[in-house]
Amino acid sequence: MNYYNYFTEIEEHFVRRRGKHLWVSPMDWSLIETWRESGIPLHVALRGIDVAMDAFHARKNRRSDKVNTLFYCHDSVMAEYAMHLESRLGEEQSRSSDAAAEHPSPQEQEAAPEPDKAAVARFLAERMSEIRALESKQSPEGSSAEDLRRVIFRLEEIVLSVDSEKRLDLDPLERDLGILDDLLVATLRAAIPPEQMEEWEKEARAELKIYRKRLPKETYVRILENFLRTRIHRHFAVGELSLFHL
């Protein structure tokens, strides 16, 4: 799994292929998050984008049409992922196939090395600083204040663990951060007025409307939830607790 730039690699590749300098939208980032959560390797996602864009550029009479969203590539990415999984069936080392599927190719590893201890420590320190600033600014009480302190305390423990380890084991670290981020988002979400959450959800549903029939229900719900999580993080100016955002 490429912890360092899964998101930026996909974004930059899509921008290059679409032929127009326009960065992806927050909803597109939610789609990338869903691909990542589904275990789609980086090289498979990039290949799916290539398939979709090759088909688009081969169209006749497309005139000045442009692909304005990464959702245009979703079906091709999922099709490539299905073929990728099928190609792995029957491998002698089937036990390790799932883990191997999440590792980038040697070329990707060379282009995007995994973060070192210093980078991870800086990342964690920045997140703790943001949460402490939020705790001071919001002055939460009761369970909310306790939950924020729990997140900070656990992050402090993780930093000490990172410092003491000779070699980082990124998989369990990412899982621990994911659990903490769930707690953080739930705590912050409770502090947002219901009408604000309704407005964000309405916005998300409007953007997803034309794709809803093409998306499996589970995928649709995950994209919607990822979009709301991103909005919550940005609203409170607290970065997501995930190494993918390093």
Could you characterize what this model shows?
The chain has 11 helices and no strands. The chain is mostly helical and 246 residues long. It folds into 2 domains: 106 residues, no CATH class; 129 residues. The two termini are 14 Å apart. The relative contact order is 0.13.
Low-pLDDT segments: 92-101, 103-111
Write down the Rg.
Answer: 20 Å
Oligomer: single chain
Intertermini distance: 14 Å
Strand content: under 5%
Largest sheet: none
- Topology as H/E string? HHHHHHHHHHH
Helical segment count: 11
Secondary-structure content class:
mainly alpha
3D shape? globular
Q: Provide the helix percentage.
A: 55-70%
Give the beta-strand count: 0
Mean pLDDT across residues: 82
Overall structural domain count: 2
Keywords:
246 residues; mainly alpha; 2 domains
Give a topology summary.
Elements: H1 6-18, H2 26-37, H3 42-58, H4 74-88, H5 97-101, H6 106-111, H7 117-138, H8 142-164, H9 170-189, H10 194-208, H11 217-235
Helix pairs in contact: 1-2, 1-3, 2-11, 3-4, 7-8, 8-9, 10-11
Brief summary of the model shown:
The protein is an all-alpha fold. 68% of the residues lie in helices and 0% in strands. The protein starts with 5 loop residues before the first helix and ends in an 11-residue tail after the last helix.
